[in-house]
Amino acid sequence: MKVLAISGSPRPGGNTDILVKLASEILAAEGIETDFLSLADRPVKPCMACGGCFRSDTIRCVQEDPAFEGILDRFAAANGVLIGSPVYFGSATPQTMALLDRVGYVARRHRELLRRKVGAAIVVARRAGQNFTFAQLNYFFLISEMIVPGSTYWNVAFGREKGEVTSDAEGMETVRNLAKNMAWLMKRLNG
Length: 191
Fold this sequence. Notes:
alpha/beta, 191 residues, Rossmann fold, five-stranded parallel β-sheet
C-alpha cells in the first residue's frame, strides 16, 4: 500500500513539510510506503476548465505543463492521499488548489482515479483560517468519493516560523493519531 503525501507549502522545509513528513514516518512504521511530493518547486498551472480531460478515454490532463507531468500517475498508484497546506489569507495555498483543481477535474471524468481511496488533510496556521482550510481540503476528498479518517482533534497545528510547529504538542499528537488512523483504515480497506 502507498500514500501520496503532498506538501502544498511554497516554503521547503517549513512547518507543513514537517507535519507531512511526521505523518509519513508514522505511516512507514505501520508498513505503508509513502511518496512525498512538495509543491515548493513545482509551479503547477491552474485548471483552465477546457474540458479536454472529459474528451479523453485515458486519465490525463491535456494542458501542457512540465510541473504537472507524472502527478496523475502518482495519484493513480496511491491507495491514500495526504495533503498538507498552510493557511494563506484564510484558505489553502494557490499551489495546493491548482493541483487539486487539476486532479479533481480529471477525477470527475475518471472516477476510478480517487474513488474509495483514503484521503486526509493537515493544516498549519499562524493564527486563524485553519477550520476553513481544513474543510476546503476535506471537500476535495468528499466530492472525489474518498474515505476520510479522523483524529483526536481537527488535523491542525500552529506555527509561523520554520520549525515552530514542533512546539504545538497537541497539533503534533493530532497528526500522529491521524497517520495511525489512516494506516488502520487503509489496512481494513485493502486487506
